[in-house]
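Incident review: delayed structure delivery

Summary: a single-chain prediction request sat in the queue longer than the usual turnaround. Root cause was a stuck worker, restarted by the on-call engineer. No data loss occurred. The affected request and its eventual output are reproduced below so the record is complete for anyone auditing the incident later.

Affected input:
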Amino acid sequence: MAVLTGLVLSPVTYVCAAPHFVPHLPNGKIVGGHDVSIEDYPYQVALLNNGYFICGGSILNEYFVLTAEHCTGHGNLKVRVGSSFSERGGTILNVKEIYTISDNSYAYDVPVLKLSEKIEFGKGIGPVKLPSKGSIPPAGTKSVVSGWGVLHQGDGETADVLQAVEVPIVNLKDCQEAYGGDVDESMICAGEYLDGGKDSCQGDSGGPLVINGVQYGIVSWGYGCALPGYPGVYGSVLAAKDFIDQFV
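Output delivered after worker restart:
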């Protein structure tokens, strides 16, 4: 496993590590999912740049939010909490600082955002649960990923209402073989590995992958969206647990 190298308090820009990587970037919808209410996913947030939705995220506590590092390379970041909609409703809060593990936004894609104002917990607003060390979910375990990303790969249509889809955890070795060894232990993979059809996609980046309400992953990247043989790749919360625990 890679060694954690410290904290970086400024935005960084995501750079793909190989030409075939497709980071799940702004403006999209969960593939194969369905409309859900923020009351069922109260930890979900929308990350905004200059008032426009760009990525997802999850609430750690009253002042900190978890997202993906390639979502943070923007100058005017805010988060929307407590809304089923990506661009209206809820409460908007300013991002004050960005904490990262290293300057490599490909591995350990798990930055923490510090907010200027306190999140007021209530109906449709609350923190996500985090896994205990060593609680690695076995392959085939059903997980749920949520966000406002694209319906299909290359589709520019954005989701107005929060989406969610159930996807199985994929064995890390199988995921490494699918991506030619570009997946490491700072990542976790999930998706319909053999058949495709269900996945996170562009615009879902930074959003949570949860198992029974416990967050194990952060939407990061993949080859296309919901393609057979190529599961979605997520930043591993377990791999970055020591880092994240500093803020909770």
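Verification: The domain at 128-239 is CATH 2.40.10.10 (Thrombin, subunit H).
Action items: add queue-age alerting; document worker restart procedure.
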